[in-house]
Amino acid sequence: METFKLKIDDRQINAGGGDTVLQAALKAGIYIPNLCYDPRLAPYGGCRMCIVEIEGTRGFPAACTTRASDGMVVKTYGPQLDRLRLDTLELLLSDHPTDCLTCPGNQRCELQKVASFLGYNQRSLKPRKSDHPIDDSNPFFNLDRNYCVLCARCVRTCDEVTGINAIELINRGDESRVSTFAGSRLAESECRSCGECMVSCPVGAIHAKNSPVATEETATICPYCGVGCGIYLGTRQGKIVSVRGNEASPSNRGSLCVKGRFGINEFVHHSERLKSPRVKKEGGFESAEWEEALRIAGDKLSGYKPEEVAVIASAKATNEDNYVLQKFTRAVLGTNNIDHCARL
Amino acid sequence: MGLNSLRKESIHEWNEVLNPSRPQIFVGMSTCGEASGVVAVNKAIQDGLEEHGIDAVVNKTGCLGICYCEPLVDIIKPGKPRISYRSVEKTNVSGLLKDYILDDNPRPDLALGAWGQEFKGIPDLFELDFMKFQVRIALRNAGVINPENFSHYLARGGYQGFEKALDMDPEEIIAEIEKAGLRGRGGAGFPTGMKWKLCRKSRNFPKYLICNADEGDPGAFMDRSLLESDPHSVLEGMLIGAYAIGCSRGFIYIRAEYPLAIKRLKIALEHMKRHHLLGENILGSGFSFDIEIREGAGAFVCGEETALMKSIEGQRGTPYSRPPFPAQAGLWGKPTNINNVETWANVPVILEKGAGWFNRHGTEKSKGTKTFALAGKVNNTGLIEVPMGMTLEKIVYAIGGGVCDGKELKAVQTGGPAGGCLPLAKLGLTVDYESLAEAGSIMGSGGMIVLDEDDSMLETARYFLAFIQEESCGKCVPCRTGTRQMLAILDTFIKGRGKPQDIETLLSLGDSIKKTSLCGLGQAAPNPVLTTINYFRGEYEKGINPKLLRAKAHQ
């Protein structure tokens, strides 16, 4: 990859071919306030927080929509930039509630981060009260438009990352809002509940119904299917309370589906979860040791001719396990009668 | 394969119109005419001809721009000049037909002017104050020909520019446009030749060409009128541009609220197809090009080029940051050249008559002419085309006939909602891209509204700001929320409850919105407020709550 140098706030920075000014700055540890930027999405330039000054360029371009180039000289702060950003923030906050403490986005909110970075401390424009009803139809997360900053990260994620396009911005100007097709509730829409929009939301507008803050995180692999998504399981008091996609994992790059994101803690801690093999004895299932269960299975299978046996593989097993299973079926059981539950 | 034999026939047909063997009647059938009742007049003409047993040909024509005299009806009798009759009514048209056509009384009392000469007490139309200072290049055929008749356009020099272009190298054509000094008539004034050159340089194919006909400024109707009156001038310009740049597909993005313009464009495109001016191997030249019409769904912001392209692509019409410029990566990521209706209409003439002829008109940096929709408290309202560099004063007083009811002029608003209000003291200003911008307004697409002493500048600013606020797409914060906040503050002044410090709030908020907005719409949104504070601060001060002023005095 082509690399080059540019100067940001008097520091020499190395940047790569496709980097925007914002990406180059963030990689170098220089924070430029931003809200509508998500590294997974195409540049948008809507929040106008990341405006900068670039030598030889007119006005105040947004760092997120400007490609970094060799020899560029960028200034990310200064009296005028600070004032312009504060004015934009002030405008944004005049459309935003200030009940941070009871907001589900509290402590995770990027707007809070921007406001505190810019030293916002006084509301001078008249706030607008909004009373959009909360869409709580989805079993896992709520959509509360009153907190929405219209950065369109959710909408763009649903398009660019998941390809579902369940939501879109509708209306115009300050009547704009996030909507499903024909304004139906999320549960009745095309939404697959993957929660990618929720992850991308910089504020508390799309928030999990139940999301205590974890005290510890463990990197692992999602047990649900053969894709093998990398996840972080968040635990607290010995229990799994949160799941987060691992951005470094090559199989999912941070994305998750509804099962991985919202389905793990419930089944892990479910009272009816099977933790050992079960064998049928006298008409009912009973727990057994693995050795016993395998012996019984082996004995029974030996009593059949190959053409009398069929094997159904599971989507929850990994690719490697399923490979071994088909090998076992063909080479050991001697039959081609193997299929997969995903085809049923 | 050329147009020569067809052009010969067309000239013959056109001569039969100008020097007819039987009377020719032209009825001004544009939207402006329709709005002032021409449909009923047209019916009355048919009835009158029947009633008096007159054998005459009735033609429709476009808009001559003389809106204050609509409906306009022209009559050409054998051996006589074309006479335009003003404010024709369905009740008097039958009498007019009888008096002039049968009894040879040209009714000077109903006439507006005779074309090219004085005639029996009727003044020369082109010597009228409204007409004599105009130079009609883009509007050369408007109100003259029947826009639905291909022969008329051809007879008046149509497609000569294109045929000439086909004999030239694309680079030569672009050089000619550059030499002419043509700049974008959509408002920003970017040099057209340079734009074409950038797009031509790109080695990425296919390339697209767009005609921006999403005219949306309140009170502006130049493009509508041009498309309704002379669609081929725009289409020929596009053809030349496409050939010079190397585009294979063109779009006309036009607002759906212009049904008559769309209808006439469709008819004109049919003419072009029939005469091998569109499609594969145009006129046997090896050059292929097609034009499609795309109708906008009524969003002002879709006149902004990046939003316009999104809209053509079928996406939500919101702007995005440039670069990349359309010439590098536009429609579907391919090199795209966008010009406004009026810009395209100027192109054929430049090719036909040469850059030297064109750039004789105008100022050093703003060449040619500009059309304006002259409206408001001015005696002669209408569509005018004047050389760049004419003073506002001349436009308002000489062409516009001064302010209505002998009132005092207060301001002239130019440039539509993104423009500004210029006070009486700035009336000596010349109308060109540079001087208007310097005075805090813009050329814009050509809206020009005259305000008199009774007009409130606060209300005027509010009208335009409210328009922008309503039309903001909502993508970027400053435009979306800033315009609403400015409007709310402006309202306190209108109600006489303004806070003394809020004049400064408006100025600083306006400055921020201008500097931080994503697209041209937001960057110009505060202009109506900023220019009125600049030139009419006193009116804002009058809107301050007197109690607050007293409190301040006590401190």
Question: Can you give a write-up of this model?
Answer:
The complex is a heterodimer of chains A (344) and B (555). Among the domains of chain A are: 3-77, Ubiquitin-like (UB roll); 212-273, Single Sheet (N-terminal domain of TfIIb), CATH 2.20.25.90; 278-343, no CATH class. Helices cover 24% and strands 19% of the residues of chain A. Chain A has helices spanning 21-27, 79-93, 110-118, 153-161, 196-200, 258-262, 264-268, 290-302, 319-333, and strands at residues 3-8, 11-16, 53-54, 73-75, 141-143, 167-170, 177-180, 206-208, 216-221, 230-236, 239-245, 278-281, 284-287, 311-313, 338-340. In chain A, helix 9 links the parallel strand 14 and strand 15. Chain A is elongated and about 85 Å long. The mean pLDDT of chain A is 94. Chain B folds into 4 domains: 17-125, Glutaredoxin, CATH 3.40.30.10; 150-358, NADH-ubiquinone oxidoreductase 51kDa subunit (Rossmann fold), CATH 3.40.50.11540; 369-454, Roll (Ubiquitin-like (UB roll)); 458-546, Up-down Bundle (de novo design (two linked rop proteins)). In chain B, the strands form 3 sheets. Chain B has a 5-stranded mixed beta sheet, covered by helices on one side. A 5-stranded mixed beta sheet of chain B has the order 11-10-14-12-13. Chain B has a 4-stranded parallel beta sheet with strand order 8-7-6-9, sandwiched between helices. In chain B, a hairpin with a 5-residue loop joins strand 3 (73-76) and strand 4. The A-B interface holds A 43-48, 51, 59-62, 65-67, 83-84, 87-88, 91-92, 94-95, 124-126, 128, 150, 152, 168-169, 171-176 and B 299, 316, 320-321, 323, 469-478, 480-485, 488, 505, 508-509, 512, 515-518.
